[in-house]
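Each letter names a residue; structure tokens follow underneath. Both lines appear below:
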Amino acid sequence: MLRTRFTEEFGIEHPIVQGGMMWVGRAELVAAVANAGALGFITALTQPTPDDLRAEVARTRELTDRPFGVNLTILPSITPPPYEEYRQAIIDSGVTIVEIAGANPAVHTAHLKEHGIKVIHKATSVKHALKAQQVGVDAVSIDGFECAGHPGEQDIPGLVLIPAAARVLDIPVLASGGIADGRGLAAALALGADGVNMGTRFLCTQESSIHHAVKEKIVANSELETQLIFRTLGNTARVADNEVSRKVVEIERAGGTFADIADLVSGRRGRKVFENGDLDAGIWSAGLCQGLIDDIPTVAELVDRMVAEATEIITHRLAELVAAPVSADRA
């Protein structure tokens, strides 16, 4: 057992979180994460309407009686969704934990906390993490440059960003980006985090609803096979390396505008990757940690393995280093 401020305050067994992932955060995966003693998030905007979100929450409750949450990601969009209506669906469904990512969480945090809902905000900088704390969130997930999706524009890796955030925040900190196993969990705790938030690793589990071909590609990929798109637009995103993402980077480098890449990066095309297994149908998120992933376990196997590995590292390997006598050669 690894007990932290986060596990105590959020009522979960293990300091491991499955963050929101578009087209992925559905009932089967979220319930499996919850049943394994970790914290899973339904991705609100994966559901076509707020009523569909209500139904997905109800479906998840049929699969688990343990805590889970809903992710609400607020990002620039060609057609902005009705965020307030999704927020009301979360409240109406009796969800007790929400993960907000993207824009300033203040407008949503106030409404959610009125209903006793704990709020986690995903931030990519210490500045934004402090702002989130100021507006009343209960925990911050700090996203290092290694992460899938949006790592921010400052390119600070987790080895620096995690302790920098933990040093100044008073609320629990989750380390996100580059974590896929017990070594990453132990390292995050050593850096001052109270838990870890993983996306790519949970993407590649048996309960993940994406096409098996995508999971096999993650296993086959190394840490070198991602692309950073939208760099010239000030909205950097890390996605898997494929024909489409390389084309997007090429257009951006040639001075192209968003209009020139809009069709290539559409969510409709990205969804086809996950549903049909066509790896070049569109862009799809993947973090550098895919280079550490070499199997497709059940969620329970993954969580149990991570906790056991982290515990072994903390209680044995590191303890032995401290206790090891200095040899005569090194004295």
